[in-house]
Amino acid sequence: MRYIEPHAHMVSRVTDDYRAMTLAGCAAVCEPAFWAGFDRSAAAGFYDYFRQLTDHEPQRAAKFGLPHFSWLCINPKESEDVGLAREVIALIPQFLDRPNVLGIGEIGLNKNSRNELKVLEMHVDLAARHHQLILVHTPHLEDKLKGTRLILDVLRADARIQPERCLIDHVEEHTVKMVLDAGFWGGMTLYPETKCTAARAVDMIEQYSGERLWMNSACDWGVSVPLAIPLAALELRRRGHGAEAIDRLIYQNPVRFLSQCSKFKLPNEAVTPV
Ligand SMILES: [Zn+2]
Predict the structure, then answer these.
(1) What is the residue-averaged pLDDT of the chain?
(2) How far is the CA of 33 from the centre of ligand 1 (A)?
(3) S-S: 61 plus which of 66, 99, 147, 220, CB 3.0-4.6 Å?
């Protein structure tokens, strides 16, 4: 089995996780910028975090033969302070040429507030000006449906944004259709307690063909499972999906989306879109 982990917060993980992922067939890991579990006190904290994502973490992953890519932003959870967000966003362009940076993410909304929306628009403008891919975090539970609608509205309102270059993550049963119908990609986050179980993800794949869907583990500092994708592959196999269909979903699909950024290259592997 081979797979791409397209959304994993590896700074929260130990080396055993890198080793287990590599042994399970992980061919690359992609790490969006995220909330640290506590609010950072200044823009300088983000500057160091971006250095960690673009310099230190790729080196740590390389020790396990794993290519590491990253996405940069100030996450929605810390977007309430528009002044701080403006300072952080101003730091990002100097990192965009780093060899492992794929785009702007995970941006989006948390509580669907006016300030979060403003910061989302600032990020979308940044991505458009620098022709970057976009990775979007959608809110939790009761805020998800409204938040997803608001996010899609912001993206569609900007004529420079191409939906096929944006992935809307953490989709669930009540949001996946609107995301795919609008031409965006959807990500399903496999968590043991919240968001989406493997069985629910496979249900959605069977219902919506899976052509523009990927799965990820998120594996952050909270309760999460770094091997969630290979475990979901077992669920796919148990339900009768063949090896080619599984490979398409957990390897070829993320490669197809991520290869829209020319920096996404895998060693010893042809990554031409399938
Ligand atoms: Zn995340």
Answers:
(1) 94
(2) 7
(3) 66
